[in-house]
Amino acid sequence: MTSDGIRPQPPVPPDPPADVAVEAPSQPPSSPSPGWRRKPKKPLWPAVALVMLVVAGWVGVKAYRSLTAAPPGEDGEDAILNLARLPVKVQIAQKGPIQGWVFDEGSVWPVRRRLLNFQASGDITYVAKLNGVELREGDFVARGQLLAEIDARRQEASIDTAAADIQVSETQLSQSRASFLQSQASLERAQSDLALAETELRRYENLFVQGAVSESDRDSYINRVDQAAAALKTAEQDVRSAEDGIRSAEATVNASVARLNESAVDLEDTQLVSPIDGVVAYINIREGEYWSTQYLNTASPQDLIESAPIVVVDPTSFEVELELQAGDADDIAAGQRAYVVLEEDVSQAQAAGIGSQDLLDIAKQRGSGGRVFAVSPSQTPGSRGTEITIRDLDRVRNLKVGGRVYVWVEVASDRNAVVLPIGAVVTRGQASHIFVVNEADGTVQQRRVTPGIEGLAGVEILSGVEPGDLVVTEGQNRLVDGTPVEIVSRN
């Protein structure tokens, strides 16, 4: 402290140079010393980023130099051309057989099938039994065999009534014929009486002229002739009446017979009789149940056979019915070859994703070969499709009534065609093209082609390709005429 009472202050240090950093003494952050300031550290990421950028540039330069460096024997343009070549797969165009196919689904039906249906309603009173067992699917039945019957008491009563009416009518007819005979005899007597009266009158006329008899005697014979003529007219009328009676009685008999026949038909409507020798394919009734004619469902063939009382089929011949759209049906004609296979025989293979050609091979191995039997000239009202029928199937053991099948119909074939894979043909606009490799310079030539028969895996080329041409089969979608290519696979 000085003599004047003032405490001496510590000396103030001089300011450090601008390029020298002075580290402040460590003090708690909550109580910084006046006049002292902490300087923050500089971040390091700008320097790291700069180093990475330099390294990346160096790597890029090395890569560019290695890519652009021409191998021994090549100049720079050839090297660049090799780098620009597009990889393709090719196949040599060859001649071989090809078939065009139309594929669809169909249903199996017997050629001879009979849907037996009651034409009357009532309780089912009888179902045939074979060896003591009620009729069931798979049973063989004979032509004319009674298979089922519903309550027919009303129809039987009608038959009895019609039969009684016939007896009454036949009795009336017999009486009419007897009356006719009597009238015929009366007519003959009247004719004879008239002839006799006329003869007597002529004799008395002569006697009267001679004066042998009186006028009153002559007049009496004139009266006799008039009476005989009247009796003849009455007899003729009786004959005509008797003839009308016969015709009326005959009509009554005919009407009674017609009623009897109608009643017999009504009785037949209560019975199911097999019209063929065959096998019961479906039976949808049981003895004691009630049947109504409204139970029959005609919405579809499948509904029909599943609702009909009994379906009898001939197990020796089947046909397949399918419906094709107009575009496919135009190529179908009677006699074309077809292959049919049950849906379940190829379902597993189809689920595995195998190709159409493999499915057709399965159909040839496991299915049945046949021929197109008929092509309907009309279209179905609902779907506007055309119905096709396949018959002459060589194997029917595995076919089932109403079963779903796959059908292949061969609509065209060529045993000596230039065939390429379907994927080799590129459609651009309205034209079809392929690409042919020129091995001399490694480029492709775009050619316009005319396709022919399209098979399941290949297509016939009518023009634009020659056997031996090296055709691009994969990778052609990126090509144009003159594109350099590299063949990576050759078939």
Automatic annotation (TrEMBL):
Domain Multidrug resistance protein MdtA-like barrel-sandwich hybrid, chain residue ranges per copy: 134-293
Ranges in a coiled coil? 187-252
Short name of one Pfam family for this protein? BSH_RND
Span list, region Disordered: 1-40
Give start-end positions of Pro residues composition bias. 8-17
Q: Which residues cross the membrane?
A: 44-61
- List keywords of the entry alphabetically: Coiled coil, Membrane, Transmembrane, Transmembrane helix, Transport
- Which intervals hold domain Multidrug resistance protein MdtA-like alpha-helical hairpin? 182-242
What Gene3D superfamilies does its record include? 2.40.420.20, 2.40.50.100, Helix hairpin bin
Q: Give the superkingdom in one word.
A: Bacteria
Give yes or no: UniProt keyword Lipoprotein.
no
Extract the InterPro entries matched here: MdtA-like_BSH, MdtA-like_C, MdtA-like_HH
Q: Where is the Multidrug resistance protein MdtA-like C-terminal permuted SH3 domain?
A: 416-477
UniProt protein name: Multidrug transporter
Please name the source species. Answer: Leptothoe kymatousa TAU-MAC 1615
